[in-house]
Amino acid sequence: MSSVMTTWWYYGWRTVVAAFVFTVFIPNSVTSQPQTNLLLRSCATINATSLPIFSRNLNATFRDIRRQLLNNNTYFATSEQSNNTENVFVLAQCRNYMLTSECVDCFDFADASIRSCAAAIGARVVLDGCFLRYEANSFYTQTTLPGNVGLCGNRTSSRQDVFATVVDGLLSNLSIATPRINGFFAAVTAPVVGTNTSTAYAIAQCAITLTPDGCKSCLQVAYANIRSCTTDVTDGRGVDSGCFMRYSASPFFDNNKTIDITPFLREGGSSKKGAVIGGVLGGVGVLIMFLIALLLWYRRSKRTTPIDSLNGATLQGPKEYSYTDLKKATKDFKDENKLGEGGFGDVYKGIVKGGNTVAVKKLAIGSITARDNFDTEVRVISNVHHRNLIRLLGCCSKGPELLLVLEYMPNGSLEKYLYGEKLGSLNWKQRYDIIFGMARGLAYLHEQYHVTIIHRDIKPSNILLDNDFQPKIADFGLARLLPEDQTHISTRFGGTLGYTAPEYAIHGQLSEKVDTYSFGMVVLEIVTGKRCTDVPNESVGEEYLLERAWNHYESSIHLKLVDDSLDPAEYREEDIKKIIEIALMCTQSPVSMRPTMSEVVMLLSDRSRVQNPPTRKNLDIGDLKIQVDNSTSDKMPMSNADATITELEGR
Ligand SMILES: *[C@@H]1O[C@H](CO)[C@@H](O)[C@H](O)[C@H]1NC(C)=O
Ligand SMILES: *[C@@H]1O[C@H](CO)[C@@H](O)[C@H](O)[C@H]1NC(C)=O
Ligand SMILES: *[C@@H]1O[C@H](CO)[C@@H](O)[C@H](O)[C@H]1NC(C)=O
């Protein structure tokens, strides 16, 4: 045990404000009794006037608390003796992951420990497994108390950035969700890949006597305190009067105590769960699911149309195909016609009347909401006309399944040309054209279409290639057709951000710049031929693609990044350097440093050099938090990037 002495201010019920001393214990290692590990003890400096009465009252309340914890199978108890001269109000709380016997054991420990405050009129002890406090007046609704602390375990020298990012996401989500959960407690875990630490564990808890708002403000303080630990320490606690937060790289609760907090991340708490989707998310090969975000603010320019009018007759609707015809076109959805499959349904090649080849997507979305919104969303998508965006040719909403009819791309996806059977076969000009076309397609979706459409899932498998190897972006977002309960972090984030912008992956903060980021990652892949998600072998000095790109760029050796299969005679070094710089600009954080997609188009078309060279800023979780506090902490967008675990093979 190491101990730290410090002073803080104590606001007693008496009018004086007395300074007093408390001791913080920080465990050096996991003990055999981890739940009774003492974190903090503090005693008021004012003593009771009548020790015998005080002692009798204290004993009576403690006995009552112990009885409640033992017999009522509860984790939380209060008790008071307040009808005589030495009033005592007591509150005890165990972490909800404990068994009743463990809870009572922890309470006994806390009881023994708090006795060292002798006749002090107020005291509290915080252990890993429980919390005990008494005062001379009622404090049950108190949220924060000066002296609240973040307690960090031992510093670790090993690289912790991935772990830190995962933990920060968990803690941020806990601070949002816990106040909305009945009982004010949640335990969660998330996988951490690419490090020795394979899982992150975290909990948050508030005193049951708080209001949801009180719980929220307490956890905000606790979260701010505990974050001082997350950068290079594998365990930490945030301790305050009304709440407790903890994370660790080691398990401190049973896995079966975790809950899915995703439904609580959105205002309004637990929402109805979307049907079906969860189980099939990991599947491969989806043709369409452009994720649309109809941003609720209107643009000043006249191309912006209020969302309501989308329901009206201002837009031409898609062509309605008959179910029977599409069934025939795809030979009754025969396996040999299948182009791919994924979370939102299978895609089939079909030949419709007139002889045109199309791709038919069978939407595996059964929810009522999906059907309700289908027509509106499909109408929005079907009016997107751009040479770098896949066309929606029609749909079928009358049959037993929702079907989308899409442009068919015989060359398949960029994925195939970067990593699949056609690996290494794209020359520089083709790669450049793909980069340019993607930029134009995204600029159109963001800024030129009458509603802003954020794709949210830009990656090589969603970039289809036409006969001339011009790119067409697939995957229109049917955001409203998607289930709303997919977490943006715990199930898919897995420690590497991949194509997903950090502020979106961690906080669900959505803007067009989310696409700018993914675009930058794909550009790096096109230039290097390496996947951004490839897990580096750190023992031989490998790094994630983005990290390597920054390091090479900062050392002015970015040409070393270029794909070996490219013939150096095909490209100008200046062009490649510029494109790498544009890609890095696109991946900068905070989002304000990223260019808009139309700025990217301008940079690409301009022969001059990039004016403001990109600068690396390490993922600054502080920035992200501030942004989320200002805007989105209470309204997590539909962050169904989960659906992004898909592959598109328009074979
Ligand atoms: C209260 O309990 C403590 C510890 O259990 C004991 O030492 C003390 O004598 C008790 N005081 C009274 C007045 O019962
Ligand atoms: C992983 O563990 C090994 C030995 O246990 C250690 O040498 C290595 O530095 C660790 N790597 C990281 C990233 O912590
Ligand atoms: C949870 O896991 C623990 C140990 O892993 C086990 O003893 C306990 O029975 C489990 N509880 C439930 C409800 O499955």
TrEMBL record:
Cited SMART domains: S_TKc
Keywords from the named record: ATP-binding, Glycoprotein, Kinase, Membrane, Nucleotide-binding, Receptor, Repeat, Serine/threonine-protein kinase, Signal, Transferase, Transmembrane, Transmembrane helix
Protein kinase domain sequence ranges: 333-610
Keyword flag ATP-binding: yes
Binding site for ATP: K362
Chain segments carrying region Disordered: 630-651
Record GO terms (molecular function): ATP binding; protein serine/threonine kinase activity
Transmembrane segments: 275-298
Gnk2-homologous domain segment(s): 36-139, 145-252
InterPro entries: CR_Ser/Thr_kinase, GNK2, GNK2_sf, Kinase-like_dom_sf, Prot_kinase_dom, Protein_kinase_ATP_BS, Ser/Thr_kinase_AS
Annotated Pfam families: Pkinase, Stress-antifung
Name of the protein: Cysteine-rich receptor-like protein kinase 2
Gene source species: Tagetes erecta
